[in-house]
Structure formats: structure tokens, C-alpha cells
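Sequence in, structure out.
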Amino acid sequence: MNYIVLDLEWNQSNTGEEAEVKDIPFEIIDVGAVKLNGGRSMTDEFNQLVKPTVYLHMHKITGKLIHLHMQDLQNGKPFPQVMEEFKVWCGQDYIFCTWGPLDLYELQRNIRYYGLEPLSNAPIGFLDVQKLFSIAYEDGKSRRSLEYAIDFLHIEKDIPFHRAFSDAYYTAKIMALLPEEVLENYSIDTFVLPKKREEEIHVLFHNYMKYISREFADKQEALEDKEVISTKCYLCRKNIRKKIRWFTPNGKHYYSVAICPVHGFMKSKIRIRKSGNDNVYVVKTSKFISEEECAKLQKKKEEAREHRKLKKKSGHAKK
């Protein structure tokens, strides 16, 4: 299997000169990629400008960042041609690697806009090298800039940053140095969502479980679904008693804690996310926590309850 280390640059509506097109708010103008073999050695590269058809004025911030002008892009190829060449270059057996989670989503949105064959008819697993760097060298939660990671790893800066190929090149350099064990922490792009319950995603990682649902019409429908609110032990696969019932401190994230007699306290977190067509889907993570962490979550629930009470009293007082 090969690793396709991908980076994109895109343009957007230049306020005052052209309106944003809803189906393609970010138009790809530069595609860069590096191919690594199974041993993570560089074997090939892809570097191509894209001739724009949607946004014909360069956004001022984009232009300054990537040092490209609209006249430079006139030498590019049409996006459908670039994608045809890129797919051939990628080959058959590979996994995408990107710095951060955005590139793969925007690539698929541009592909859909042009009516091209999709990359996949299901969510795509990929390696977010920015996240993997954090897992390998920091706390797993921080998200550093590409240049920070290059400096941290003492990698030579032999080409400028902020072009698609150069950023793919530096991401590949970092990818080559990551410990083998962190590569199991792959990410899942949700531009395409599961279409039915049987296709929903359940992935067991080293120390947590991730579930990605199909689409629901709204938040209420999602939170009434048995699989969404289930708190089965993901190791025993048995129903376990809830210690802290589902609650939300903000209306977006929902938490619960259940007790497995074998594995202890299991915290679950639900995140409600908007899909591309204004429906919603759920990302739920579950992991085992300490008794102290359970107590902190109980306190968080009590604080959320008090906040709702105060808000309700305030609303009655205004009336």
C-alpha cells in the first residue's frame, strides 16, 4: 500500500466583486501530492495548478499567503482534467494523508460540483498527520502549524511553504518520521455519510471507540435513536448501568457515564453535526475513565442543571 500525501490551495469569494457559490465555497486552484511507499520513502510527486472557472478574482488574503496571482492560474488545467490525471497517478492501493482534516472534504466537494465520479460512496479513512504529530510528540489534543512541526523535528526547510506541493512535501517528511504505532489512529472523512443503519461506522481504536451514524432529519430524531444513545460496553458488548444519564452543558455535546462490572467507568460523548444537506448526523466516542474523572463529569452535570434553572428564572423575570 502507498501513502498519498495531499495538500490543496483554494480560492474563495472576493467580497464586493463576486458572490459565493453555495455548492463550491472554496475553489481548488493548486493540487500537490507526494507518494510514499509502504516503507514511507518518497517515490513520486504530483504538482498542478488549476484554471479557475468559479471565482475569477483572487481573495486578497489567499493571494498574499500562497503568492499566486490570477494570471498564474491561466496556465493551469481545468479541474476535471487535473482530477483525471491525479487519480491515475494515485493508482489503486493507497490511503490519503493530509495536514489537518479539511483537504479531503474540499476535494470531494469540488469533485461533486463538477459532476465527476466520487472518490468513494462511503466515508473515507485517512491519516491526519497534524493529529498524528500531536499524538506522537505532544498531548494528542493540540494542533500545531506545519512549520512548527518541521522545526520541532529539525527538518531542513529547503523549499518555501504555503504552496500545495511544498506543504505536501513537508507533510510527507513528517509522515516518514512518525512512530509506526501512531499510524493506527486514522481519521474518517464524513463528506459522504452512511446511508443506512447497516453501514454505520463502529471503530475500536487503542483506547476508545468511535461511532458515526447515518443522517437524521434533526437533533431530536437523532437523540431518540437507540444506537445513538446506547451505552454498551464496547469491550464486553453488554448493556451496562448508567451512572450519569445523558446531559448537555451547551445543546451541542451530550455526555453520559455507565459502569461496566469488568472494565469500570465508561464515558460516552455525542456530538451533533450538520451534514451537507442540512440534516444532522452523530459522532459518538466512548472511553474508560477514572473514578475522579467520573466525579468531575457529575459536577459538570450539576453545573449545567443550575445554569438551566437560572436561565429559566431570568426568562420568567423578563416576562
